[in-house]
Amino acid sequence: QVQLVESGGGLVQAGGSLRLSCAASASIFSSSVMGWYRQAPGKQRELVASFTSGGAADYADSVKGRFTISGDNAKNTVYLQMVSLKPEDTAVYYCNANHRPRWGLRYDYWGQGTQVTVSS
After folding, report:
1. Which residues contact 97 (CB under 8 A, 6 or more apart)?
2. What percentage of the chain exceeds 90 in pLDDT?
3. Does residue 26 have a pLDDT over 80?
4. Which one, of 94, 40, 95, 34, lies nearest residue 62 by Cα?
5. How many C-beta neighbours within 10 Å does residue 15 have?
6. What's the pLDDT score for residue 101?
7. Which residues pair with 11 in a beta bridge?
8. Chain centroid to CA 75: how far?
């Protein structure tokens, strides 16, 4: 069952920009901490940006000042605006929903991923 759907990846030159989108179901979006992860070839998946339970945003040090996570509650969608892209940003980017029901077990939902390639 598809719960999260990413879009917006592509090929961009170094220094360029991309905006990723993640559309979620309302039931997940309303009860989850949303975030973005990425996985480069031969490397482990790593956190890129995430909302906190209090609504603030956390970023990996490698992307601070360049990436911005935002959300549109009316559309049940989270975004990742990426500027000043570097070849090191090349990876498959995954949307994550850390679902936190009040009286249930926490569960991570993942999108299928969208490829971001930054050329030198």
Report:
1. 3, 4, 24, 28, 29, 32, 33, 34, 108, 109, 110
2. 89
3. yes
4. 40
5. 10
6. 87
7. 117
8. 16
